[in-house]
Amino acid sequence: QSTRTIGLFQIESPGQRELVGKLQPDCFEDLIIDISLFRPGPVKSDMITPFLNARHGFKPAQLIHPDLHFVFPIAKSKEVKSSDNVINQFRTFFLENPYISLQDWFSELDAENKQPLIGVDESSEILHKLNFTSYEGGNKILIIWHPEKMNAEAANKLLKILEEPSDNTIFILVSSNPDQLLPTITSRVQKISVGICSEKEI
Fold first, then answer.
1. Engineering a disulfide at 73: which of 43, 68, 114, 116 sits with its beta carbon 3.0 to 4.6 angstroms away?
2. How many other C-beta atoms lie within 10 A of the C-beta of residue 38?
3. 3-class DSSP assignment, residue 151
């Protein structure tokens, strides 16, 4: 935090010392963020400023970026066929409580008695989104929340996407029951286990 980082590999340049001072890291994970931000892509597209604004509370995070896409279970109806139909509601609800469960989400939708589903229409939307060129010339990121709720047809389409992904595309599958995913999907991703947070930590 003092910016006295001369002699420390990767965070000793003048630009890095300035970023360390603005970021004010207080744990090892913050240094990973710092190094990730101080790269040609993020620097050129000015991703650092909005990140710092959100981190320090100057401007609230909105989860809106043309290269960031979300897929999550929905209560399918005539009006709601994919995540895009309720994405604004999802963003608002998630920002109010980042620790929401699937049950919380369906309570928000007034759909407690309906089956959570990621259907085949969603897979078509994924293909459509990822076919676009990256807005800022960097990576495209697709976050799938509770991918185990995909039906068989959607899961098989996702498998094809994972086998032949678009260039510079990052898939993040966030699952509380990864054992329910197709083995052919789990074999194509890197598994990172995240422990349960205590109520005090939350």
1. 116
2. 19
3. coil
Which of 171, 167, 166 shows the shortest CA–CA distance to 189? Answer: 171
Tell me the C-alpha distance between 125 and 93, whole Å: 22
Number of residues that this document lists for the chain: 202
β-bridge partners, 145: 174
Contact 41, 22 (CB under 8 A): no
Contacts of 138 (CB under 8 A, 6+ apart): 41, 42, 45, 67, 168
C-beta of residue 8 within 8 angstroms of C-beta of residue 2: no
Q: How many CB atoms lie within 10 A of CB 189?
A: 15
**pTM (whole model) above 0.85:** no
- How far does Cα 93 stand from its chain's mean position? 15
Report the pLDDT averaged over residues 80-89.
Answer: 91
Higher pLDDT, 135 or 125: 125
Q: Going by C-beta distance under 8 Å and a sequence separation of 6 or more, which residues neighbour residue 122?
A: 71, 82, 83, 150, 154
